[in-house]
Amino acid sequence: MQVIRTRKTYDVAVIGSGAGGGMAAKVLTEAGAEVVLLEAGPMWDTEKDSAMLAWNYDAPHRGGAIPERHFGEYHAGLGGWSLEGEPYTRAPGTKFDWFRTRMLGGRTNHWGRISLRFGPDDFKARSHDGLGDDWPISYEDLAPYYDRIDREIGIFGSNEGLHNDPDGIFQPAPEPRCYEHMVKDGCDTLGITCIPARMSILTRPLNGRPACHYCGQCGRGCAAHANFSTPSVLLPPALETGRLKLITNAMAREVTTDDEGLATGVSYVDKNDGREHHVRASIVVLAASACESARLLLNSKSSRHPAGLANSNGVVGRYLMDSTGTSAMGYFPKLENGVPHNEDGASGMHLYMPWWRDNRELDFPRGYHIEFWGGRRMPGYGFLNGIEKTPLGGGYGKALKENYRKRYGATIGFSGRGEMIPNDDTYCEIDPDTVDRWGIPVLRFHFKWSEHEFLQVKHMHETFHELIHHLGGTPLTPMPTKEENYGILTGGRIIHEVGVTRMGNSKKTSVLNAYCQAHDAKNVFVADGGPLVSQPNKNPTWSILALAMRTSEYIAEERRKGNL
Questions:
Q1: Cβ proximity of 286 and 255 under 8 Å
Q2: Short-list 562, 357, 331, CA closest to 469
Q3: What is the pLDDT of residues 433-448, one digit of tens each?
């Protein structure tokens, strides 16, 4: 096949336009670099393409999930756990689902905006319990970057003085809703920490962006730019420099290298016509999402890198992690016959529960946080089954309406999100027999939860049920058994997969150094979730952003010195 090669050599090629890629593009263009950014999906304009205020009944599928949008027909999530023509495989016995987003901005368009800093203990967890590995950096190394993204992007929350859930530079948090006040009161009496959520949604104007007007549709894409996504916040200033070239529908095949093993650019397929292209660059930053970046490195083979780029030690693809997750729901008679009222607020939770226990008292390491949800939203059929002999009130006419009014808003759900310890049985590799529609070899996953994670989710359910009973409710979710693995979700379902190109000081056990620079090729960097050494009980996006900012400023400084 003829490869169309660009004559221009860019200073930097960035693969992926999500949190890490968007931050890299902004920092590097503002530092004077000519950057080309490759995105595997189409353009996405949050003002023009958002369905933020559309009614579900106006849509052909009433807003429900469709193959190309697994979270809903109007959702700003072009992609899913399965993509036509883009398979992945699982080793025998493995259960793992890989979510991929294909659109400008990637997952930043549809994530929950839960924006939590990793804490001091998270960076040195092995020193505390002997499991996993310590990071090559500390909280103090990343804290200035957390501060800067707080200021530049915007986040609401409250300063609580919690040691391992660091405070930030917060805008005021929205007022808790009625059911959230009820849960907060229950948590206080049980000694469970419950504080305002920390989410990257503006409650005050910032940098020309207005405050959230509380439409509650963050996942559809914010036409007002009040929440964080790279098309709203990071890519516009990068484009304004005149030094950013966007190429969408560009499916990266491999990072090309020279005789010395250094990167020379990126080979990609134009998904519009299937033609092969090559863009030249002096530096390559992979930010395609953790596993996609690992796939690119493993597929970038040459005489100098026979096992794949940056993989001389065989570590690329290893140490795969996802957050643990499970949920339970309760029905609360004290919320019956609620008075109709406006539940104004930002999309998602206004309060949450960070980890509050000492693991020395427990039978599992590390911890989890709890997100909870409810309110006056139309419950599904299954939410109310079992409360009375007739599901959802049954019948029709007046009796049915009275039951709806009685039960509307009387359910509350609790979801746990916890830390997984990396293990030798969980990793991704190239499948030797399967390729995608463009002939690019795909990933094969191996995934295994350990006893640590099973005992953790067991504790989650015990906590949920204790809370529900304490608040006078009836659990609608039975307590899962050991045979049911205590209700743990399939790996990949929380969409926090990280760790497959991890950073470290040792070239034997890590892919990257402390600045996310490949040990094997000094002009190759990774700026997504891959460099994470651990996946604490916190959503990773804020840390991906902070690491990407730190890495990009390091690249800019090394370019200034002539080292790159």
A1: yes
A2: 331
A3: 999 999 999 999 999 9
